[in-house]
Amino acid sequence: MREKIEPQKGLNQAFAIINGRLERCKKILHLLVEQIDILETMTPMAFLEFRDNLIPASGFQSLQFRLLEQLLGLPILHAQGCPHYRLNEHDFAVLKASGQEKSLLQQLNEFLAHLPYTKEKSKNFWLSYYQKIQVAFAKESKLIQENTFLSVQEKNLQQAQLQENLICFQQWYEQADSVQAQVGFVALYIFLHQEQEEFSAVYQFLKNLMDIDELICLWRYHHYLMVQRMIGHKIGTGGSSGQEYLKNHLESNRVFGFLLQLINFLTH
């Protein structure tokens, strides 16, 4: 199943530099997550003593956070699902101007779409893998059905999830001409060949993007828990509904979630 493909000239060298910088970004995000621990050493009363002085500042609704989201790939008018009325005219202009540049997600999609591992360019591999996926899902379905520790309801739930994943792959396979499908095929191909030297650097690049997505999600979650603990259901300093607003956006703003979805389709 693992084809030998010649790497593009200089690709690993370029990704060595990129991955080094992404590792630095990950260190920064780890630090941001850990800083919330410091705030949580305070009591709610101590926190409330200075909280009002933060208005209208907000971690989620600040210009800097919006620029970061937009740089990664969240659309400017939909980031966090909240309008930008809290930004002043100058900051909104800065945000809007930055939106004219290609995001990291857009550049990733363009890069992957041009690699020679799409369904169209690697027909034999993907036909064989499609058949292998069907066998793997059938085997997993049999294991679920024969599991004596699961109730009928639990079996039905797991079978439904398994069927949903299979249908998702089938639809993806049949719509291979779309840009998103091509990108998915290439990314999955890289996942499957990650141990080959020519794919190790680009795989590490994709892994770093998933790590960054996860760390931002982790920061959001820690922020949500801190807000829940410190202010309860009070309105957020940025004008949002507070903890409910934060809770509703813990998962919805993942940028590279499609890479995580590919894990459903990995098989030996």
* Shape estimate: globular
The percentage helix is 55-70%
Total number of helices: 11
The CATH architecture term of the largest domain is Up-down Bundle
β-strand number: 0
The whole-number mean of residue pLDDT values reads: 82
Structural class: mainly alpha
Oligomer: single chain
Give the biggest beta sheet.
Answer: none
Radius of gyration: 22 Å
| Terminus-to-terminus distance | 9 Å
Looking at the structure, the CATH topology of the largest domain is Methane Monooxygenase Hydroxylase, Chain G, domain 1
What portion of residues belong to β-strands? under 5%
List SSEs in N-to-C order: HHHHHHHHHHH
The number of domains: 2
What is the highest CATH level, the class of the largest domain? Mainly Alpha
Brief overview:
With 268 residues, the protein is mainly α.
Structure characterization notes:
The protein has 268 residues and is an all-alpha fold. The protein folds into 2 domains: 153 residues, Methane Monooxygenase Hydroxylase, Chain G, domain 1 (Up-down Bundle); 49 residues. Helix content is 65%, strand content 0%. It has 11 helices and no strands. α1 packs parallel to α9 and α6 runs antiparallel to α7. The longest helix has 34 residues. The termini are close together. The N terminus is likely disordered.
